[in-house]
Amino acid sequence: MIASLPSPLLFAVFALAATAVVIASIKATRLADIIADRTQIGEAMAGGLILGGATSLAGVVVSVNAAASGDASYAFSNAVGGIAAQTLFLAIADLLHKRANLEHAAAEPANLFQAVMLIILLSIPLCAMSGPDIAYLGIHPASVLLFLVYLAGVRLAASVREDPMWRPVRTSDTRHDAPEDAEEAGHSVRGPALQFAGLVAIMGLGGWVISQAGGVFISRFGLSSSLVGAVITAVVTSLPEFVTTLVAVRRGALQLAVGGIIGGNTFDTLFLVAGDIAYRDGSLYHATGTNDAYWLATGLLMTAVLLAGLILRQREGPGRIGIESVLMMGIYLTALVTEIFA
User: Fold this and answer.
1) 86 within a domain of the structure (yes/no)
2) Would residue 134 count as lying in a domain?
3) Exposed (0-12), middle (13-18) or buried (19+): which is 181, by Cβ within 10 Å?
């Protein structure tokens, strides 16, 4: 049905789906903050688990649909391109937090640990792509390992949040992770949770429409799968993370902002697991191209720079943002120019 639409209507449907996903994500951010307060799990963990997973749903739908249709490059680049784009969004959010470097103000051990886990998770598909082309029942063993490591990481991140072995130095610019309303802790979480689930359904439907439209862009306009996946659909399906990050920063929930991006990125690595399962022609990792590997390496490099910034905790840098944000913008811009012109 979407494939038969004329180009103007196709763009309109694509924009409408993207808008629906973004609006739902804005409302989900507020609810995630309320859920964090009422369950007392903390902003960083709420950002990484609740908000990060929900706002990534549209992206996983895109990768699964692309893999099921046999376009491995589209599925893979959408996943890793989204990780790079979302890390860039954190650098942009740093520009808007005028008081101090965002990575300094949002000091939180759980976010540091999640960044380390993300580097590990991104290294697994890189190893798979470089290793032998094997698959059992159409699934590469790396996908199973990726899923198990993710589960272990979630559990360990929770323990870091609940019982940290070290704490960051508090400064006048550090945002303390505490409920904005102490009375929220005594209220029921059922209502916000049901509303949150409804918004998740909207984001999932929007992701399906975006994936279908992206496939039409590839066939109708002769665009490469890696370009559409890493730059177009990845950025569009990552807009919820961008919006939720900006909203969280505006609300002063800085741990939620940083945790949402890093946690969302760790969840996005599972796009590759879902895509490998949906791709029935063998290993997804060996059906991709060098451009897809380049975006994977870009996401890995940007995450390493972000982790360095979280550890360094530079208070002020060029233009009152951290040097890590400047570097992340430069890395992403280089990757984008390379994808378009190389």
Assistant:
1) yes
2) yes
3) exposed
Q: Which residues are CB-contacts of 128 (< 8 A; sequence separation ≥ 6)?
A: 140, 142, 283, 285
Answer whether residue 332 shows pLDDT above 90.
yes
Cβ neighbours for 281, distance < 8 A, ≥ 6 positions apart:
70, 72, 138, 287
Q: Which of 340, 86, 69, 26 is nearest to 214 (CA)?
A: 69
What's the number of domains the chain is made of?
1
273 is a domain residue: yes
pLDDT tens per residue across span 229-245: 999 999 998 887 788 78
Give, in order, the Cα–Cα distances in Å from 307 to each of 32, 110, 114, 327: 24, 12, 9, 12
pLDDT tens sequence across 14-25? 999 999 988 887
The CATH number that applies at residue 149 is 1.20.1420.30
Q: Is residue 34 part of a domain?
A: yes
Task: Say what the pLDDT of residue 40 is.
Answer: 67
Distance between start and end Cα atoms, the chain: 34
**Each residue of 126-184: pLDDT tens digit?**
999 999 999 999 999 999 999 999 999 988 988 887 888 877 777 766 665 554 454 55
Angle at which helices 254-268 and 72-96 cross, to 10°: 170
DSSP state for residue 170 in the 8-state scheme: P
| pTM, entire model | 0.86
The contacts of residue 202 (CB under 8 Å, 6+ apart) are 20, 21, 24
Domain that includes residue 27, residue range: 2-164+188-341
Q: What share of the chain is helix, strand, coil (3-state, %, to 5)?
A: 80, 0, 20
